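Entry type: protein chain
Record version: 2
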Amino acid sequence: MTILSSRQRVLNAIHRQPTDCVAAIPYIYDMAAAVAGVPLKDFYTAPEAMVRAQLALQEEVGHDIIAIGSDNYYIAEGFGCKTTRSDDEIPSLIGPPLADLNDVFDIEVPNPATDGRMPVMIEALKLARKAVGDEVALRSPGTGPFALASYFIGSQQWLMEVALVEAGLDDAKEVAVLHALELATEALIRFGKACHDAGADILHCGDSLASCNVISPRTYQRFSWPYSKRVFDAWRAHGARACLLHICGNSTPVLDLYANTGADLVEIDNAVHMGEAKARIGERVALVGNVNTVTELLQGTPESVSVSAQRCIDQTGAGGGFLLGSGCIVPRFTPVENLRALVATAHSQPYPV
C-alpha cells in the first residue's frame, strides 16, 4: 500500500478502512512544552507557544496526531471559575463561581469566541492546521458535561449533591443538578463546533469525573451518559469527522454504555484489559489505547514500551478499528525515546493485523 499521511492513517483507522500501518496517537499535552523548552505558562495561555511546542515534539517523534489542549478549565473559566497561573504547573481550580448550586440558574453559557481560555484553544487549532496542512491529524481539547458541571461548585461538593439526589434524599436539588448539566452540555457542544470549524479532525469529550473509580455505573448512566450522547449527536450533526470519548479509570462495567454514546472512538485507560474492550465493543467503535502512562512511558524503557505497545496491538488490532495510544495523558517528563518506541512499534506493523 502507498504510504499514507498521518492524518489519513488516523481517519482510515477510525472508519475501518485499510491503512499502511497502525496509527500512533498518544495523548500528549505539556510533555511537548518540556521537550521543546517552551515555558509552561506560555504553553497554556498563548496559542503560538502551544503550537510551537507540539510541532517540535511531533517532528522529533513522528506520532500521527497533535492534541491541542493543556488542562480541564478553559471552558470553566468562561463560566466564572478562578484558576491558578503557575510557571510550574498547569491550571487548577481555586474558586468555583457558585457557593450554592441553587444559584446555577443565574449563570449563562459562555461564548467560545470570547470567554475563558476557549479562544486560546481555538486559535491554536487554527495555527496547527495551517502549519501541518493535511499531513497530521488534530485532536481538540474537550472536557465532559459531568466534570464541567462539577466546576460550578467544586467537584467534592458536586459529588455530594449528585449522591443526595441519586439516593432520593434531596429532591429539591435535582432541578439544579440537571440544569447545571444542561449548561455544561450546551457549552461543550458550542465549543466542539468551534473546534471543528477551526480544523480539528477529532472532537474530544473527556468526562474524567464520571469514572467508575469515582461514581457508580448507575450514577454514570443517569448523570453523564445521556449528556455525552447529546454532545456527540450535536457534533456529528455539525459535520464532525470523528468524536472521541475518554473517561479515566476502570470502565469495564460500563463499556457497553460508552459504545452507545455515539462516539466513533473510545480511549481505553490502562486499568481496562484491551482484549475485553475489543470483545465487548470493538465491533461498534474504534478503540484507542492503552500503553501505561506511568509504569511504561514515564518509568519504563524503550524495550518495555515496545512490549506493552505490541501487547495492545495483539489484543486489539485484528479486524480493524484500533489505534495505538496511551492510557491517559502522557506525563510531562516522559523520556522522548520511550515515546519514539511506541510510535516505531505502531509504524512497523501492517494494518489491519
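Comment: The mean pLDDT is 96.
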